[in-house]
Prior knowledge:
The complex is a heterodimer.
Chain A: E1 2-13, E2 16-28, E3 33-37, H1 44-51, E4 59-64, E5 67-68, H2 74-84, E6 85-89, H3 100-110, H4 115-128, H5 144-156, E7 162-166, H6 174-190, E8 194-198, H7 202-205, E9 210-215, E10 218-224
Parallel strand pairs in A: 3-8, 3-9, 6-7, 7-8
Antiparallel strand pairs in A: 1-2, 1-4, 4-5, 9-10
Chain B: H1 2-15, H2 17-45, E1 57-64, E2 71-73, E3 75-76, H3 79-87, E4 91-107, E5 110-119, H4 123-126, E6 131-134, E7 145-149, H5 150-157, E8 166-169, E9 175-182, E10 195-198, H6 199-209, E11 214-215, E12 218-219, E13 232-238, H7 244-258, E14 267-271, H8 287-318, H9 320-328, H10 333-370, H11 381-408, H12 411-415, H13 419-422, H14 426-459, E15 469-473, H15 481-489, E16 494-500, E17 514-516, E18 528-532, H16 536-539, E19 544-547, E20 559-563, H17 564-570, E21 579-582, E22 585-593, E23 608-612, E24 619-624, H18 629-643, E25 652-653, H19 654-661, H20 663-697, H21 699-707, H22 712-746, H23 757-784, H24 787-792
Parallel strand pairs in B: 5-10, 7-9, 18-23, 20-22
Antiparallel strand pairs in B: 1-2, 1-13, 1-14, 3-13, 4-5, 4-8, 4-13, 6-9, 7-10, 8-9, 11-12, 15-24, 15-25, 16-24, 17-21, 19-22, 20-23, 21-22
Helix pairs in contact in B: 1-10, 2-8, 2-10, 2-11, 2-20, 8-11, 8-14, 8-20, 10-11, 14-20, 14-22, 14-23, 20-23, 22-23
Amino acid sequence: xxxxxxxxxxxxxxxxxxFVINDISLEVExxxxxxxxxxxxxxxxxxxxxxxxxxEPSSGYHYFAGETVHQLKDKQRSALYKKFIxxxxxxxxxxxxxxxxxxxxxxxxxxxxxxxxRKAMVADMLDRFQIVGKKDLFPAQLSGGQQQLVGIAxxxxxxxxxxxxxxxxxxxxxxxxxxxxxxxxxxxxxDGVTIIQVTHSEKNAEYGSRIINLLDGRIESSKQL
Amino acid sequence: MIxxxxxxxxxxxxxxxxxxxxxxxxxxxxxxxGLFILLWVQDELSFDKFNTKAPNIYKIGIxxxxxxxxxxxxxxxxxxxxxxxxxxxxxxxAVRVKDFGSTTFKYQDKIFNENGAFxxxxxxxxxxxSLIEGDAQKPFLDNNSIIITKTVAQKYFGNEDPLGKVLSIxxxxxxxxxxxxxxxPPNNSSIKFDVFLPLSYLNQMAYVKNSTRYNGTGRIxxxxxxxxxFNYDTYLLLKPNTNIAKLQKSLQKIHERNxxxxxxxxxxxxxxxxxxLYKADGSDGGIKTVNTFAIVAILILIIACINYVNLSTxxxxxxxxxxxxxxIIGAGKAQLFFQFMAETTLMFLIATIxxxxxxxxxxxxxNQFSGKQLALNLSNYHIWLCIVxxxxxxxxxxxxxxxxxxxxxxxxxxxxxxxxxxxxNASFRRMLVITQFSASIVLIISTFIIGKQLKYIRDxxxxxxxxxxxxxxxxxxxxxxxxxxxxxxxQPGIIAVTRSSGNIIDYNNWTGDNDWDGKxxxxxxxxxxxxxxKDFISFFKxxxxxxxxxxxxxxxxxxxxxxxxxxxxxxMHEPIGKRLRIQTVKGTIIGVVKDFHxxxxxKKIEPAVFMYNTxxxxxxxxKTTGGDAQKAIVATxxxxxxxxxNTPFNYTFLDESFSxxxxxxxQTGVLFNLFASIAIIISCLGLFGLxxxxxxxxxxxxxIRKVLGASVAGIVKLLAxxxxxxxxxxxxxxxxxxxxxxxxxxxxxxxRISIEWWLFLIAGLMAMLIAFVTISFQSVKAAxxxxxxxxxxx
Lengths: 225, 794
């Protein structure tokens, strides 16, 4: 479903290039659950952002769902990721002014779903995540775990094929973290959502089907579980 | 989608109460003041427009006098109108109006003063004063007809049919039958009277029956051959596209053909639509004030808009996270753009509703204040035009800018908070703050200078003493003046009594009928002739420079006293004993008085001549001791009653008449005070918001500096300095602008203050101080906060 070939990302500093990502090639099949690990500054988040098309590589080839991403225009690219990709962030990044319900609904608004459709989809999602009772609360009124749950619900609402998560449990305690990981595993197994997560935790990484270790912008090792 | 925008906008307004209140208050106040001023401006510009034929109506005047006394006479001789109508094909109709002032009318037991005029029947068809009752074809049935306004009809006759009712003038035998009723002239009419008598009646009384007017060949038997009395406001209704220059020449020819010794008499035709705001020669007659106020209104609206723009762009940085998130979950540029628009529009809507409510509440006070009778009419599209334009400008500046800014950045960076430093586009906001404060400072300086000039006028030595003087018109006292004077002088509190043929505060009579030894052939010098009694000069403490005042001797009837300016204008050396003829008085100059101001300080002092006359003089002056003024008034009233059984007793203090002379200037002064205060308040509101924001953004920096040992004062300085530089820049811009504008304003005064540099200094310091207080409020708060707290929140 996804193919990166010789992807590099660097910053020009004087005469030298500082590589954040250095010639990475990666194939991801539909249905995989990949954990990206590595020390701080190894390029994990950058790699994830490139995959999510939030960031552009300096060189290399990027294919996604049959499209040649590196040749697409901005508009086409955002249309592509709107349709296929959902994001989950370490800091949740919910919109403070919107309620739980509205936060989950917002992506649908931007994708021009009809009001009745949106209602049904959000209700379904609230039900599935068992947060119906919280739907009228604002993010500030929720615990971290609950906020992340909403974040995931929001990422999944438009039915993405690929879920990208940047340290989704980083701000959570271990119990909450475990719940989120269970949820990811279930999504991957039962709903067939492809997941790529960045994590620091060995334990969380092992929920995945493959672990990729990065060091200084290169893939140091890759291990199938 | 729209529902979503509005919902988000509303929550944003609600969740940021501080900024919302600042924004809404600023916008509301700006709208109220801006709209109020624009209402005033619109009213001024609407004068006489209700006349449907106005574009083709011209008022006729002539230029007279020479040298320093050149004048425009707006009232002209009567026959010009008739001749023009008969001889010139482009003149469709002509109207003459002769004001007869306030006159007391009576119907049964109802007695009121009415302002009236003699006029031609064409008055009611040329102007939009058509009869609502009576015969439009023949408004006046005969010479004893009267036409009245609706209000007058109501006053005398209540709900009875006014037609055919008979009004009389107090103490006079004539009776006038009401033959027509017109609607009250609108407030924005330059021509405003309560009652109208036929001009033919005036002709009958003043010429046909008993003419006191003579020309070279004898008694003048009709108004239409009187080529010497400049008494009639004359309006011509012209055919469309008439060549005005040619018309003026034709009128001049008519005049010169009939009165060759007047030549040359240049004629001026002034459009009716101009007479409210321009003088006949096209110079300023109020248009400057109107323009100034329009500019001020726009400035205040701009200042209010800038507040909004500044705060919302500054705050947009704080909202970078939200916007990024929306982008990541799929928001397009257009969608973000409309979200911002929705917010601004909602904010504006709230401010507009508040502003309109406030305007309704304040309108009575504003009318009192501005001397108008404005109405807030929401169907007036100008109001909405103004609101919509302000909205569009605010929208453009405050939504489009941040919308483009926010929707164009890379969301990832914003999420990481890296944007706050780079994206502020502080220079744009700085520019706006400078604009705001420049405008405010210009207004402050203007207020100072207007105030100072007004004080100068008030305090300037007029050359005569107007303190504790009551003036009144004599009416029935006139024939018994000497007896009344003696009686009055016996009353406690009355020190002196005198009389003259015109009001010394604003004396407007002219004569060009004069001659003196050595008068150049081409001179057309005009004099202000004033008939006085022997006590006038000492009464007003007018200083004699040479010669003597009148003594009351019989010979005084051929004696004249002139002012310094007259001596100079006649180019006369050693004037005492020289011969001077004024109208029919062939006299000798016996004295010269020091110049004194007998008209507004806008005008230079002009040549004046005192003539001695014991029987003429309508105005009586009574000097009282300040403390017993009230007693003096009561005593005067009692004596008045003996001679004027029916005419109401009216008096004014000269001080009051003097203040009235500068009513417009006083109003301008008060309004400017208000505008300047409001401009500075709105500007400070914005500055306060910006300072708060700036302190917020710098919370971390302040925390770190404090941990490193910075003092509170040092941190306040850090925060305040940035803004103080902006104010300084504003002062630099404002000073020349204010100097230029105020020099222009002062030019209208023949007697004026010079603009001094320290006024600018004070205004600048004031702005600095106000701004500093505004800023330090927040800065101090930020500086004394516990750094641990601010660092932890990062």
